[in-house]
Amino acid sequence: MKVVVGITGSVAALRTPELVRELVRQGYDVECVMSESAHNIIHPYVLEWASGKKVIVRLTGLVEHVRLLGVGGEATVLLICPSTSNTIGKIASGVDDTPVTTMAATALGSHRKVIIVPAMHQSMYENPFVKENIDKLKRAGVVFVPPRIGEGKAKIADEGDIIAAVKKATQR
Predict the structure, then answer these.
(1) Residue 48 in contact with residue 20, Cβ under 8 Å?
(2) Is the pTM of this model over 0.90?
């Protein structure tokens, strides 16, 4: 079963290679896609090592988003982990100006399962507009794995909780 993992520009991106590696160990076929902001935090080569596949860092004429998440696409689920408040807002507003948000727009338009794992400062997570965007996406069927709150941060969820959400979405 194919899972697309979208990585955005949160420092929590440092935890994503471990998550990707564990998904692969559990038998998932994982492809990673990164926003440009994520490149400032983690190099695509690390995710290439973790997934065993070339990382999508920009969309090309091969229309990777359609191949993976379009109608009849190869992937079952899009997991955006970590997701910034910026990415949540863009997806909720229908903006697709990064490889990750374009994947999300395509997945939602194709009725694919989308899971979002927020990670940001707590004050950003508590922003009423961010909460409104999360609620809007939940109403559209997007699943959120809630962050762990501590030290003034909305920290990335535990790996076990994220994997459980993927298993549920893929019914494994």
Answers:
(1) no
(2) yes
